[in-house]
Amino acid sequence: MPNRRQFIQQMGAASALGLGAKAGLSLAGTGSDTAFNGVPKQFPKTRLRVEGQWPEDLVGNLYRNSPAMLERDGFQHSHLFDGDGMIQRFTLEGGQVYHQAQMVATHKYLAEEEAGRFLYRGLGSSPPNPRSSRNNDTANPANISVRKMGDKLFALWEAGSAYEIDPDTLATYGRVDWSDDLKHLPFSAHPLRDANGDWWNIGSWIYGGQARTIVYQLDAKANLKRVKAIPMQQAGYMHAFALSPRFVILVNTANIYSAGKNYFDSFHFDAKGKSEIILLDKNDLSVFKTIDIPANFVFHFGNAFELGDELCFSMAEYKNADVMSKGLGLGPQSAFAKDATQYNSELNLYRINIKTGRWRKEHSQLSMEFPNIKESQPFKPQSIIGMGRPVSPGSKTDQDYLLSYHPLTAEQEVFDFGKGFTIEEPLFVRSKNGQEYVLHTLANRDTQQTGIALFRAGQLAAGPVSMAWAEEQFPFGFHGCFVGA
Amino acid sequence: MKRLSHTSKTITSMLALLGLACSPLTLAEQSQHQLTLLIKGYEESKGTTYLSLYDDAEHFNKMDGKSVANVQQRINGDTLRITFHDLNAGEYAVSLYHDANNNRELDRNMLGIPSEPYGFSNDAGAFGPAKFNKASFKLEEDKTIVINLR
């Protein structure tokens, strides 16, 4: 009986022996910037090759969103954020794993399908002779995340509306207007669930000389309960937020917007400026406190919790915004093409005295992205799981590893698949019998195959308990959710 | 009075009935020209377009009744053609919006941003309401201009 690391090694060898890549996806480690060329409009339902024993009581669907369509009519977008969204679903049932995927039928995607070419500017790159965008949904690719709120599934972007998706067929129902006066306004890709089942989200509006953060509160069935536009002192980039029992926590970064030739070109990182931690009182959505911190950049947060008068929250913190402007591009400066460590974030814990506003930062000295927590316990100090990033200079994205870190105890766990594997966002999932697992997709870059791995929560170092592999590599994705059956 | 036509049909009388008749224009001893507007980009073939033609910055886009002409026209297709006749040579600018739900106003979201299509001559207004000097054009001969809805 092989141990788990041997099991992984055997699995990799088996994959390398017999199975060739179909999708023309050649990314990190190759220096190529032709990622995602030739992606089909859908992947029909296929059964993956199972390795190990998948728990019978772990039944449900892992949904993930991928910026899949990056090339049309000979034009290749040069930034990962510009691919049209594709919803991928990995179905776990009866000890088997199935995959299927479908493009999100956004206004942009349908118009460009009809035209046979890209029509609109992306966030980081622009096709020739682009059409002007009418509103924030004209070029909305719905490509960052997919979340279930209530009984509805939503494909989410960050600068426009949500699109509702059929969780069974993956067909697109259409754009979601939370109310008539919220049409086309930003709704971020990272809604957070409150302890009472409500959902919170933000939308960052930084255009036309205005800087507003729209705060949404939805009920457990995803009906709008409350919304407020909060004026901001600076037009900083905000991708996500944190939520504590008392506060909506914004970090208004020092990556400042001022209209340029495209969205990302419009940002300037003000290294001598400041970022702001803004605490919004959940009771009335008033600004409770604004705390200036040195200029930083952040996409994602761990969870927030309150210890008496102390508010604590984690973030995957960057020293500057190069990761957005260059790191996630697909050119020669990209994290995929060269040394990825220059774009590393550090998982840091901010501790703020709610009364005095005094704050301190505890460094983990660990590079992590795509942090996630057990959403059933949103306000409890707990281990954060994510993609660990290599710190040795020259390391590339195929040297990521699975990482768990507790921000208070500093307890950490690591599992490294070894060179040649790129892991994607890990999630905590729970079986019908209450067993907690960690589930994530990954790619074997050598064989160009996509896989899915399952670990027992709290036992990451022991390696996966089961895996499954496709015969091809599916598009890389950003975020998703697991919906138990 | 100037004459207006929509797809070669005179609609001056209809405008008068709707109380949107053009402001009086003195036909001075100067050259007069025809201006045709091609408005493109209707995604919904329903509702009404409200359009105003201005000849000065002071009243541009103010909706204060001081325009050279106002037009309201129901939509039936993805393009609308409107022709003004007998316009004096000069500098003009156009603003318009597509009232898709026929509530007689330009719907806006909670931040005041239009949530119905709108447009300006020269396709100005990429970053908020256009100014007259960005939307204006000289009319010195018969002319056709295209306005793409935003």
TrEMBL record, chain A:
Cross-referenced Pfam families: RPE65
Gene Ontology MF terms: carotenoid dioxygenase activity; metal ion binding
Keyword vocabulary terms for this entry: Dioxygenase, Iron, Metal-binding, Oxidoreductase
Top-level taxon: Bacteria
UniProt xrefs under PROSITE patterns: TAT
Region feature (Disordered): 121-143
GO BP: carotene catabolic process
Cofactor note: Binds 1 Fe(2+) ion per subunit.
Cofactor(s) needed: Fe(2+)
Protein residues bound to Fe cation: 190, 239, 300, 479
Family to which the UniProt record says this protein belongs: Belongs to the carotenoid oxygenase family.
Listed name of the protein: Carotenoid cleavage dioxygenase-like enzyme
TrEMBL record, chain B:
Pfam families: DUF2141 (PF09912)
Family annotation (InterPro entries): DUF2141
Leader sequence segment: 1-28
Keyword terms: Signal
Keyword Signal: yes
Superkingdom of the source species: Bacteria
Protein name per UniProt: Uncharacterized protein (DUF2141 family)
Organism for this UniProt entry: Pseudoteredinibacter isoporae
